[in-house]
Write a structure and sequence with these properties.
46% of the residues lie in helices and 20% in strands. It contains nine helices and nine strands. The strands form two sheets. The chain has a six-stranded antiparallel sheet, sandwiched between helices. A three-stranded antiparallel sheet has the order 1-3-2. It is globular.
Length: 251
């Protein structure tokens, strides 16, 4: 029930406070947190005090606020991505050992690829994908691999609302990329996020042949070897799918 002049519920305001921390920033001053959450300072102070009492937020020296350990515990204890990450990690490690490059794992959330795991090593190329980071479907090979293996209704809804804020890609171009990814069984994008890298991703498919995740690598353009990369990724993706299926049967 709404109980503020703006019509926000308490839950709405709590979510705004917790979501206000930007990627890569571990703490915020209370005034900055209030500004980013779009809430009055007094309201933010009260919510922070209440959330800190439950360990969901913490106050540190100088009056700054940061996410609490209890929040991390609750998210990781019951997260639906936990089983996925556990199933995928051995295969991701094998891929990294063979290719010596970045390996990432993503799921589809709305019209974005949400990265739930990433393995990197010193000397590998730049990888803009970050754990808990997001990329629009059309600029990520993982996003394209995920969307290319969704129900037709989901794809139609995505394409129906699609617009590129940078006006570099048209809806028809994205449609063609999705069709290509569905036909080939993998998605690739060269020099889109970084001009010197090539992203390749394959879907992890469930029993209905719908993508529940995407497994991808980011490699230097000069070392692009589709004939070696794609079979290795597809074999790993099938292994992840089997482990997920076995876990579902046990549950």
């Amino acid at each position: 029930m709404a109980n503020s002049l703006s019509g926000d519920s308490v839950v709405d305001r709590v979510v705004r406070v917790i979501s206000a921390f930007p990627e890569g920033v571990s703490s915020l001053q209370l005034s900055d947190l209030a500004h980013r959450a779009g809430l009055p300072l007094t309201t933010t102070h009260r919510l922070v005090r209440q959330l800190a009492a439950h360990g969901l937020l913490e106050t540190v020296d100088g009056g700054a606020v940061r996410p609490g350990l209890r929040l991390w515990e609750l998210v990781n204890r019951n997260s639906p991505t936990l089983a996925l990450r556990q199933a995928a990690m051995p295969f991701m490690e094998d891929i990294q050992q063979v290719l010596n490059q970045n390996v990432n794992l993503a799921v589809l959330d709305g019209w974005e690829a949400l990265f739930v795991e990433r393995l990197s090593r010193r000397g590998s190329v730049a990888n803009r994908a970050r754990v808990a980071g997001r990329m629009p479907v059309h600029v990520s090979s993982a996003g394209l691999a995920l969307m290319a293996h969704q129900d037709k209704a989901v794809q139609a809804a995505y394409l129906g609302q699609f617009s590129d804020p940078d006006a570099r890609v048209t809806g028809e171009a994205v449609r063609a990329l999705l069709s290509e990814a569905a036909h080939q069984g993998f998605a690739q994008l060269a020099g889109v996020v970084d001009p010197d890298t090539w992203g390749i991703a394959v879907p992890v498919l469930d029993g209905r042949q719908r993508a529940v995740a995407a497994l991808g690598v980011v490699v230097p353009l000069r070392e692009m070897r589709l004939q070696a990369l794609v079979p290795a990724l597809q074999t790993a993706a099938r292994g992840i799918a089997r482990r997920l299926g076995d876990a579902a049967i046990r549950d």
